[in-house]
Amino acid sequence: MISFLSSLWRHPESRRGARDMVPITPGMSAWGLVTGVAMVKSGMSVGMALLMSLVVYAGSSQLAVLPLLANGASLWVVWATAFCVNLRFVIFSAQWRRYFGHLPRGQRLRMTYFAGDLHYVVFVRRFPEAKQVPEQVPYFWGCVLFSWLGWQIPSILGIFLADQVPEQWGLGFAGVLALLGLTYTLLVDRKAWAAAAVAGCAAVAAYGLPLHLNIVVAIAAAVAMGLTLDHWIPDSSQAPHDEEPLA
Amino acid sequence: MTEHDFYLIAAIMGLAVVTTVTRGFFLLSDREIPLPDWARDGLRYAPLAALVAVIVPEMVMSHGHLISTWRDARLYATAAGTVYFFWRRGILGTIVVGTVVMLAIRLTVGW
């Protein structure tokens, strides 16, 4: 463990991975803080909130199930809700496989806990081609361990300082702004803009669906739009990722 | 430990399994799970769509409804962040500018 971390610390690719996370970390940290506060405000004890923060480590599904847990909802409803909120990760996992499918299963299992969607977006900017190269593994770990700290430290602070963080500041919106900036970096051609517009409208229109399924509907609609446009308009740029630096 | 604590521990452990299963869905099996070509092509739009689907409702909805007022600090924070991004192309600045506008409006006019 210690030698793994110290070899990562020295590896230039893992440092680069951590550095590439820096611009979006303030937003993530604000969101982590808000999630920590929300867990305690929903009536959870400090111990339970710490356990949840450390072992679940999926902000959007944590926030989605808090009202259910507070009301003592059936466990299957709680888990099904989290599963639906996390369905987007299922899609990302197919993409991760193209980079890490060849690794031993134990290592893949350790990676899955950390493999959030933001890391995928940042990772694909660094490695746009789905070709396995040795730099990817240290880059991945640099990325995910840095942002794990950037999430967990403020989340734990939020758990302990729940009563000192005024809700009306709306700090959680910093997380939305981080995702907004990241989204803009992906809007590289008109097809991407069209897919994003469809996704945004679908997410709002389908908001009333149970279990946050509007996210899945929006992804399906945007993929359908993208495929249709790909069919009509031959590719101008193969991959929707450019090499602009993040910061 | 109360009964509710045992309930919470069971729920949290199950949620940890849900995180792992969803994030590793296609990654964990040793055999390749075949995906048709159109799915592989279409999935390059998925990360963008997922981000948009998460943030747009956070920007323009409250209590499950589209907002019908301009008196909402989130709109101005989003606009300020957007202007900054297309001016300087930086995510950090987008967050900082948007949050400053948000806090300024919340703490002065109270929208």
Overview of this protein structure:
The complex is a heterodimer of chains A (247) and B (111). In chain A, 72% of the residues lie in helices and 0% in strands. Chain A contains 13 helices and no strands. In chain A, helix 3 (25-41) crosses helix 10 and helix 3 (25-41) packs antiparallel against helix 11 (173-186). With 111 residues, chain B is mainly alpha-helical. In chain B, 68% of the residues lie in helices and 4% in strands. Chain B has five helices and two strands. In chain B, strands 1-2 form a two-stranded antiparallel sheet. The longest helix of chain B is centred in the first third of the chain and has 21 residues, at 3-23. The termini of chain B are far apart. The model of chain B has no long low-confidence stretch (mean pLDDT 90). Chains A and B meet through helix 3, helix 4, helix 5, helix 6 and helix 7 of A and helix 1, helix 2, helix 3, helix 4 and helix 5 of B.
Q: Mind sketching the topology for me?
A:
The complex is a heterodimer of chains A (247) and B (111).
Chain A: H1 2-10, H2 12-21, H3 25-41, H4 46-56, H5 59-70, H6 75-85, H7 87-100, H8 105-114, H9 117-126, H10 136-160, H11 173-186, H12 190-205, H13 214-232
Chain B: H1 3-23, H2 37-42, H3 46-60, E1 61-62, E2 65-66, H4 73-88, H5 91-107
Antiparallel strand pairs in B: 1-2
Helix pairs in contact in B: 4-5
Radius of gyration of chain B: 21 Å
Q: Walk across the major sheet of chain B and give the strand order.
A: 1-2
- Let me know the average pLDDT of chain A: 88
Question: Regions of chain A with pLDDT < 50 over 5+ consecutive residues?
Answer: none
Report helical residue fraction of chain B.
Answer: 55-70%
Shape summary of chain B: extended
Structural class of chain A: mainly alpha
**What is the string of helix and strand elements of chain B?**
HHHEEHH
Main sheet of chain B, how many strands, which sense, barrel? 2 strands, antiparallel
Task: Provide a count of the helices of chain A.
Answer: 13
